[in-house]
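Field reference: sequence -> structure
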Amino acid sequence: MAITTSPRGTADVFGENLQNWLKLERQIRAICRTYGYQELRTPMFEHTELFQRGIGETTDIVEKEMYTFTDRGGRSITLRPEGTAPVVRAYLEHKMGQGPLPVKLFYLGPMFRYERPQAGRYRQFHQFGLEVLGSADPLLDVETILLPVELYKACGLKGFVVELNSIGCSVCRPRYREELKEYIRPHLNEMCRSCQGRFERNPLRLLDCKIESCRAVLADAPLITDYLCPECSQHFAQVRSYLDLLQVEYKLNPKLVRGFDYYTRTVFEVTFAGLGAQNAIGAGGRYDGLVEEVGGSPTPAVGFAVGVERLLLALESEGSFAAEPPRPAGFIVQFGGETKVRAAQLMYELRRAGLHVEMDHLDRSVRAQMKAANRMNARWVLILGEEELAAQQVKLKNMDLGTEELVDLDAVIQCMQVEEE
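Structure field:
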């Protein structure tokens, strides 16, 4: 076991990559503030039963992908594989439903699934998600589509596609399940082993299979939109009407389903062709039965989640989101001895004034210090030699303009702050 490499499916984030992460996080928090969402931070692990009941025991996540262990108290604990079930648990535990409705929350943090690592997919990955609890208004379905669409646009992403469907409710979906099973049954032996295993337990998931032989079988399968009850049909019509009104482009996909059992009615997925076969950069939908399933009273809800790594990969492919690297305001060049002591004092005075300033810590020559300042792309170089120190001055060099001037030490902060503004 190599201890000098990170575990498979994880990644260190630093340097320019980290700057892109921070820029995206700022965009996320800004748009959530505009839409009135409050941030919620849940624990990174929960009781295993929360995900078994919430996500569904027949899903791939629960059956194959969760990081589950028994703690020292004999409790079954799972690292969170997704964010919605923990949000619902927090909503119930803290009685958020007793306050103003709907409750609008967003989260941003690491999730864990034991999957095969590939581009943009890790075993520790990060999700941004939002949840609205306490209202069945179709306009909120639209909001959970519109907010990420606006986020993608604000980040400069183009060419993404919103796919939309309704998977009905507990009233109309059972009939469709039986019709779908009757259609598939004569061809079941032509389908993959995974689909054969899901046939009785969760036949809708067969529609999500990416294997060509399975897709061929399902090419002429009945469509769930033909089986919607009047209430679901009306809800879906209103969702589409609002999307049209707000000029949100979307594509109807009557075979779109989600990987979690808790979804009802509206489901959607955002894809980006530049990522290849695994092209999803976000998905969500309505889950009106989840709060009750977890132990609360019936509560309508809808939400969305986007994989941060997947979104950053899409943005990188378009070259539209490179963050500006951090740039020090100044670098102090000193000559050792007393000049180093005074340079250290000046550096901390400048930092206390809110300016990012660095100096040499490797006892390098003046020439090497100047090269270091250039590599850091410092805006200013402050040269403090013995003559400057005796005169209580510093030579202030503007690296962008190539100009320099002598400035009194007690005026340096004011001079640099004015230039920074």
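Note: The longest strand covers residues 103-112.
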